[in-house]
Amino acid sequence: MTKTWKDSVEPAAVSARAPFIFHAQSRYLGVLKHPSFSETTVAQVFETLLRQGEERRQWPSTEWSVEPILDESDFVHWLHTVDSVQHVNLVARLPNPDGLDEFGSVWDAMDRHKARMLRQIMEAADPDVGLRNVEEDQRVREHIAMATNGFGYVSAKGVRGGRKVTYDQRHQVARESTDELGPGWLETAQDILNVVRRRYQRSTRARQAEQERR
Fold first, then answer.
1. pTM (2 decimals)?
2. 23 pairs with which residues across the strands?
Protein backbone atom coordinates (compact mmCIF):
# COMPACT_ATOMS: atom_id res chain seq x y z
CA MET A 1 0.00 0.00 0.00
CA THR A 2 1.40 3.38 -0.98
CA LYS A 3 0.44 6.62 0.69
CA THR A 4 1.08 10.11 -0.52
CA TRP A 5 0.81 13.44 1.23
CA LYS A 6 1.34 17.09 0.59
CA ASP A 7 3.25 19.43 2.84
CA SER A 8 1.33 22.42 4.08
CA VAL A 9 2.77 25.57 5.61
CA GLU A 10 0.83 27.51 8.20
CA PRO A 11 1.92 30.86 9.58
CA ALA A 12 3.04 30.85 13.18
CA ALA A 13 1.41 33.07 15.75
CA VAL A 14 4.52 35.24 15.86
CA SER A 15 7.05 35.42 13.06
CA ALA A 16 9.55 37.88 11.69
CA ARG A 17 11.79 38.30 8.70
CA ALA A 18 15.04 40.19 8.92
CA PRO A 19 17.63 40.96 6.23
CA PHE A 20 21.19 39.90 6.99
CA ILE A 21 24.65 40.35 5.52
CA PHE A 22 27.75 38.15 5.73
CA HIS A 23 30.90 40.17 5.08
CA ALA A 24 33.44 37.63 3.82
CA GLN A 25 36.55 39.76 4.39
CA SER A 26 35.87 40.26 8.09
CA ARG A 27 33.67 37.16 8.62
CA TYR A 28 31.14 39.49 10.28
CA LEU A 29 27.48 38.54 10.24
CA GLY A 30 25.16 41.52 10.42
CA VAL A 31 21.46 41.02 11.13
CA LEU A 32 18.74 43.65 11.44
CA LYS A 33 17.49 43.18 15.00
CA HIS A 34 13.86 42.30 15.57
CA PRO A 35 12.25 42.03 19.04
CA SER A 36 10.77 38.61 18.28
CA PHE A 37 14.13 36.78 18.24
CA SER A 38 17.31 36.93 20.30
CA GLU A 39 20.93 37.13 19.24
CA THR A 40 21.44 33.63 20.64
CA THR A 41 18.74 32.26 18.34
CA VAL A 42 20.32 33.95 15.32
CA ALA A 43 23.69 32.38 16.10
CA GLN A 44 22.17 28.92 16.61
CA VAL A 45 20.24 29.05 13.33
CA PHE A 46 23.22 30.12 11.22
CA GLU A 47 25.54 27.68 12.94
CA THR A 48 23.12 24.83 12.29
CA LEU A 49 22.85 25.75 8.60
CA LEU A 50 26.61 25.99 8.19
CA ARG A 51 27.26 22.66 9.90
CA GLN A 52 24.56 20.91 7.90
CA GLY A 53 26.13 22.20 4.71
CA GLU A 54 29.58 21.06 5.83
CA GLU A 55 28.31 17.57 6.67
CA ARG A 56 26.91 17.19 3.16
CA ARG A 57 30.32 17.72 1.59
CA GLN A 58 32.18 14.63 0.47
CA TRP A 59 35.11 15.49 2.73
CA PRO A 60 33.96 17.69 5.63
CA SER A 61 36.93 19.68 6.90
CA THR A 62 35.66 22.70 8.80
CA GLU A 63 34.06 23.11 12.20
CA TRP A 64 31.70 26.07 11.95
CA SER A 65 30.68 28.33 14.80
CA VAL A 66 28.84 31.63 15.01
CA GLU A 67 29.76 33.69 18.04
CA PRO A 68 29.45 37.31 19.15
CA ILE A 69 32.53 39.36 18.38
CA LEU A 70 33.98 41.48 21.14
CA ASP A 71 33.20 45.18 21.07
CA GLU A 72 36.52 46.35 22.50
CA SER A 73 35.33 49.86 23.34
CA ASP A 74 32.33 48.42 25.18
CA PHE A 75 34.56 46.13 27.26
CA VAL A 76 37.05 48.91 28.08
CA HIS A 77 34.14 51.16 29.05
CA TRP A 78 32.90 48.44 31.42
CA LEU A 79 36.35 48.19 33.01
CA HIS A 80 36.40 51.93 33.63
CA THR A 81 32.88 52.17 35.05
CA VAL A 82 33.16 49.57 37.82
CA ASP A 83 34.53 50.42 41.25
CA SER A 84 36.75 47.35 41.24
CA VAL A 85 37.53 44.64 38.67
CA GLN A 86 37.80 41.41 40.63
CA HIS A 87 38.07 38.76 37.92
CA VAL A 88 38.91 38.66 34.21
CA ASN A 89 38.64 35.51 32.11
CA LEU A 90 40.31 35.51 28.67
CA VAL A 91 39.75 32.55 26.36
CA ALA A 92 41.46 32.10 22.99
CA ARG A 93 40.42 29.43 20.52
CA LEU A 94 42.25 27.99 17.56
CA PRO A 95 41.88 30.39 14.58
CA ASN A 96 40.82 28.95 11.27
CA PRO A 97 42.88 28.79 9.17
CA ASP A 98 45.79 30.80 10.58
CA GLY A 99 46.72 33.26 13.28
CA LEU A 100 47.17 36.94 12.62
CA ASP A 101 50.06 39.16 13.64
CA GLU A 102 48.10 41.03 16.28
CA PHE A 103 47.42 37.79 18.17
CA GLY A 104 51.09 37.90 19.16
CA SER A 105 52.32 35.64 21.94
CA VAL A 106 48.86 34.13 22.51
CA TRP A 107 48.80 32.66 19.01
CA ASP A 108 52.49 31.72 19.25
CA ALA A 109 51.83 29.75 22.44
CA MET A 110 48.83 27.96 20.92
CA ASP A 111 50.79 27.08 17.80
CA ARG A 112 53.86 25.98 19.75
CA HIS A 113 51.90 23.69 22.06
CA LYS A 114 49.38 22.64 19.39
CA ALA A 115 46.65 23.84 21.72
CA ARG A 116 43.02 24.10 20.71
CA MET A 117 42.19 26.54 23.48
CA LEU A 118 44.20 28.82 25.76
CA ARG A 119 42.74 30.42 28.89
CA GLN A 120 44.13 33.20 31.06
CA ILE A 121 42.48 34.08 34.36
CA MET A 122 43.27 37.16 36.41
CA GLU A 123 42.07 37.40 40.03
CA ALA A 124 42.47 40.54 42.12
CA ALA A 125 44.79 40.14 45.11
CA ASP A 126 42.62 42.60 47.03
CA PRO A 127 38.93 42.49 45.99
CA ASP A 128 38.36 46.00 47.35
CA VAL A 129 41.16 47.46 45.24
CA GLY A 130 40.61 45.23 42.22
CA LEU A 131 42.76 44.66 39.17
CA ARG A 132 44.57 47.63 37.72
CA ASN A 133 45.45 48.64 34.13
CA VAL A 134 43.97 45.47 32.69
CA GLU A 135 43.71 46.71 29.10
CA GLU A 136 47.29 48.02 29.19
CA ASP A 137 48.75 44.52 29.49
CA GLN A 138 50.22 43.28 26.20
CA ARG A 139 48.93 39.73 26.55
CA VAL A 140 45.46 40.99 27.45
CA ARG A 141 45.45 43.15 24.31
CA GLU A 142 46.38 40.09 22.24
CA HIS A 143 43.49 38.16 23.78
CA ILE A 144 41.21 41.10 23.00
CA ALA A 145 42.44 41.06 19.39
CA MET A 146 41.47 37.40 19.11
CA ALA A 147 38.07 38.04 20.70
CA THR A 148 37.34 40.93 18.32
CA ASN A 149 38.02 38.52 15.45
CA GLY A 150 35.69 35.87 16.89
CA PHE A 151 38.53 33.58 18.02
CA GLY A 152 37.65 33.50 21.70
CA TYR A 153 35.78 35.50 24.28
CA VAL A 154 36.20 37.75 27.31
CA SER A 155 34.28 37.74 30.56
CA ALA A 156 34.78 39.66 33.79
CA LYS A 157 33.35 40.28 37.25
CA GLY A 158 33.42 43.41 39.31
CA VAL A 159 31.64 45.62 41.81
CA ARG A 160 29.74 48.81 41.05
CA GLY A 161 28.00 50.79 43.78
CA GLY A 162 28.30 47.88 46.20
CA ARG A 163 26.64 45.44 43.80
CA LYS A 164 28.27 42.61 41.84
CA VAL A 165 28.24 43.11 38.09
CA THR A 166 29.45 40.96 35.21
CA TYR A 167 30.54 41.31 31.61
CA ASP A 168 30.30 38.39 29.21
CA GLN A 169 31.06 38.76 25.53
CA ARG A 170 28.98 35.67 24.76
CA HIS A 171 25.86 37.58 25.85
CA GLN A 172 27.04 41.03 24.82
CA VAL A 173 26.58 41.16 21.07
CA ALA A 174 28.17 44.13 19.32
CA ARG A 175 25.35 46.47 18.28
CA GLU A 176 25.06 49.63 16.28
CA SER A 177 22.12 51.91 15.63
CA THR A 178 21.45 53.49 12.27
CA ASP A 179 18.86 55.83 10.79
CA GLU A 180 19.78 54.87 7.23
CA LEU A 181 17.38 51.99 6.60
CA GLY A 182 16.03 52.01 3.07
CA PRO A 183 12.43 51.52 1.93
CA GLY A 184 12.88 47.96 0.62
CA TRP A 185 14.71 44.70 1.34
CA LEU A 186 17.60 45.30 -1.06
CA GLU A 187 18.15 48.84 0.17
CA THR A 188 18.01 47.72 3.79
CA ALA A 189 20.48 44.90 3.16
CA GLN A 190 22.86 47.44 1.61
CA ASP A 191 22.45 49.67 4.66
CA ILE A 192 23.35 46.74 6.93
CA LEU A 193 26.40 46.04 4.77
CA ASN A 194 27.49 49.67 5.18
CA VAL A 195 27.21 49.38 8.97
CA VAL A 196 29.22 46.14 8.98
CA ARG A 197 31.90 47.68 6.77
CA ARG A 198 32.23 50.69 9.08
CA ARG A 199 32.66 48.44 12.10
CA TYR A 200 35.26 46.38 10.27
CA GLN A 201 37.13 49.52 9.24
CA ARG A 202 37.19 50.73 12.84
CA SER A 203 38.49 47.35 13.96
CA THR A 204 41.15 47.42 11.23
CA ARG A 205 42.32 50.89 12.25
CA ALA A 206 42.50 49.79 15.88
CA ARG A 207 44.62 46.76 14.92
CA GLN A 208 46.95 48.92 12.88
CA ALA A 209 47.36 51.34 15.78
CA GLU A 210 48.11 48.41 18.08
CA GLN A 211 50.77 47.07 15.71
CA GLU A 212 52.40 50.51 15.54
CA ARG A 213 52.31 50.69 19.32
CA ARG A 214 54.11 47.36 19.56
1. 0.70
2. 28
